């Protein structure tokens, strides 16, 4: 959520923001969690006496569990059988050791995925600017370096931050359809389709290398304990759901805004690409090629719903026996915390409370400037902050009923015009949205009959 114009930042400041976005992205933080989990397994082995000392080993990996097994049990692998295949056969009963190798393998797969996708994206953006002078001229007019812009935009897009070094976000590139096509995969691969792409990558690598580790991960999704590594069926339905939401948004946007001022000046191909880009961003990235304050309220409501939904929302039919089993296991885990959970509201209830509080803090502006400070605009801003999206309707001096002669229109978010109290509440909303996975089951004590 931008409260200042992006072009006020120097090149060095943009680099610092890029680093912060990179290390704060969900893929990077989850990868760090995998490596910490690997260290936790080593500490558990130490406490249980399964290994004497990890520090004495020449490498960072734990000692091969085959050294801990009696010689009579271990069979010599046949020629041509890989070390991992033979280890999986021999150590089938020693699942913690296989789990360590699998988590270690998954950690490096996520790291490779993170680096390769963003490096390819940066190179593609640089090549695009090299072959299309019109896009390069935009950066020259704004005094932006091409390399900094490419790295900043790709990292921001992949990490679902939505920041762009230009004040107008991606509006100045609305006619550069090739650039939009480059960024669309970055949006999907870094957020909604990350679990599906990760599982497919593990499956591909399991065909050639790390067969035992890949087989363990694909067959023991829950035991891996990585929230982004979903079961096969869930990944398939996730892809279908994501594409379905994009299609619905595309049809709705085209039917209501095709000839509107929002897409004015674009040819048919540019409109199609621009609408796809806008609908893909509606989930969790927040980059935009149009002024959201000019589009139909029905589309804004649709965007609000998309921003509210968690990234891995999917239509997933589950058999009753599987559902009952999972519910019984979940109830056992939550018995100790039942009293605390009864006092917790649902996610939607908290958002309603936040919206009410912001309407109270901005009550003066709601009366004096109702077109800018409308309840719908506040809802869009709050849900956008909760979903860590970044969509905003902005603020325009032209929409003031009583024109302030000192008012200057700025290219930053609507929250930039809020009071300090309202901004503090919005900061809380952003933290709450970032940590919402720890409270997704809240509010179950309330029964609506």
Describe the fold and architecture.
InterPro entries: Cat_transpt, TrkH_K-transport. It is a multi-pass membrane protein. The protein is an all-alpha fold. Among the domains are: 6-189, no CATH class; 337-439, no CATH class. Helices cover 60% and strands 0% of the residues. The chain contains 19 helices and no strands. The chain has helices spanning 11-24, 26-48, 83-90, 95-131, 133-142, 146-158, 177-189, 194-208, 211-219, 221-224, 232-257, 268-284, 297-308, 320-333, 338-342, 347-361, 363-368, 375-386, 420-434.
What percent of the residues sit in helical stretches (DSSP H or I)? Answer: 55-70%
Structural class from helices and strands?
A: mainly alpha
Count of beta strands? 0
Distance between the termini: 38 Å
How does the major sheet shape up? none
Please give the radius of gyration in angstroms: 25 Å
Summed up, the helix count is: 19
Beta strand %: under 5%
Quaternary state reads single chain
Low-confidence stretches: 52-61, 63-94, 320-325
Gross morphology is globular
Quick gist of this model?
The chain contains 19 helices and no strands. It has 449 residues and is mostly helical.
Task: Output the keywords.
449 residues, mainly alpha, 19 helices, 60% helix
Write the layout of secondary structure elements.
Elements: H1 11-24, H2 26-48, H3 83-90, H4 95-131, H5 133-142, H6 146-158, H7 177-189, H8 194-208, H9 211-219, H10 221-224, H11 232-257, H12 268-284, H13 297-308, H14 320-333, H15 338-342, H16 347-361, H17 363-368, H18 375-386, H19 420-434
Keywords: Ion transport, Membrane, Transmembrane, Transmembrane helix, Transport
Family: Belongs to the TrkH potassium transport family. HKT (TC 2.A.38.3) subfamily.
Transmembrane segments: 12-36, 105-131, 143-166, 178-206, 226-254, 295-318, 339-358
